[in-house]
Amino acid sequence: MIVLLFSLLSLTFLAIYFGYIKLSFSLFAVTMVLFVSWFAYHATDTLNINL
Amino acid sequence: MTNNIVRKLHIVALLLLAMPLIGAYSIQLFMHEMPCPLCLLQRVGMLAVAVGLLMNLRFGVHPVHYGLSIIAALVGAAVATRQVLLHIVPTADGITGFGDTVLGLHLYSWSVVVFLSSILGVGLLMTLMKWGKNFESEVITLNNVEKGVFFLFIFIGLANVAGAFLECGLIPCPDNPISYKYW
Lengths: 51, 183
What we know:
By secondary structure, chain A is mostly helical. Chain A is built from two helices and no strands.
């Protein structure tokens, strides 16, 4: 998942560089949703912590 | 502020943001300190903060772009604060924190500082900005310095893809990594 997040961000940078504004927003939105989901998973499951 | 000064301030802000990312990667590469899953998520957060600023450089300054950076900084700060709270009390066997310290603070503590400073920086940029009424986006031609900043962040992003893949592969990273999975 971490590899996917870094890949999506690199693609976002490339999309911005090449001037694709809608693609940039879409990639950023997907990245942030996965980012928050992955963090929530880590905070509550992997580290065995109850929030 | 004139448009030229605003663009220069964005470049300075992006370079300041790149410094902890390069520093963290250097510590991983040269001091062989493996980043934990939350440390990697903090790097994701810092790269995500850069997205809004890079969009300002490429598509023109827009409040929405600043909003993206603030959202990313808040999520990143939540991750970093989470890790600070995990290690804030020394364990029974005397272990204090995860990894080495830099100038007296652990990297995740510096991470909190970076994310809060990012929010402060974006707030200052928004306050000092002379806003017009026209928010139509346009693709702006980049000068060589701005292109260099773009390539720097693309390089940092791809370097982290490689680092994260070598460390964890495509499965979740171990909580306390001690070696690379594929190296």
